Amino acid sequence: MLKNPLAVLCTVLGLTGCTGVSPEVYRDQKPTLDLTTYFNGPLTAWGYFADRSGEVKRRFTVKMTGVWTGNEGVLTENFDWSDGEKSQRIWRISKLDAHRYIGRADDVKGEATGTAYGNALQWKYTLLLPVDGKTYEVQFDDWMYQMDGTTMLNKSEMRKFGFKLGEIVISFRKGL
Q1: Chain segment 32-68, per-residue pLDDT in tens
Q2: For residue range 2-12, what is the model confidence (pLDDT) as tens digits?
Q3: Concatenated DSSP letters of the chain
Q4: Mind listing the pLDDT tens digit for each residue in 75-105?
């Protein structure tokens, strides 16, 4: 008989929570995602934020423009939220090699790190999220999957202290 079943359960949950899919799993998937190509020129995206229960809380449309010079890019995102709010994020992205990227934005703490293989890219970063006059540091695990030459799907999980706060789902369309 276990002396402390709660301690065993917490240990098991803690260990299984640390595992995840590696971007290298997608190494052979096509089309091959290259941010310098996909995020170059105009794009439009549609998405939503859902809380941890799955309820959609906010929807948005994003008009984007990417401009690359060599391995350095600027991606300007203009958000129109379903509640009437408008916001902008400007990413400065550097391609380090065939598989690694770093990104910076004013509302990102430090650098976002990206790893791409095949048609997939995983971004990890901490977003400075303003809520009711306070700013919270929220960790993002952001996955992008290029579906074809014009379409990309994106799913992001938001966490604070290891607990899931919600997720963001986005569909990108190049050339719109």
Answers
A1: 999 999 999 999 999 999 999 999 999 999 999 999 9
A2: 455 444 434 44
A3: --S-HHHHHHHHHHHHTT----GGGGTT-SSPP-HHHHTSEEEEEEEEEEETTS-EEEEEEEEEEEEEETTEEEEEEEEEETTS-EEEEEEEEEE-SSSEEEEE-TTEEEEEEEEEETTEEEEEEEEEEEETTEEEEEEEEEEEEE-SSSEEEEEEEEEETTEEEEEEEEEEEET-
A4: 999 999 999 999 999 999 999 999 999 999 9
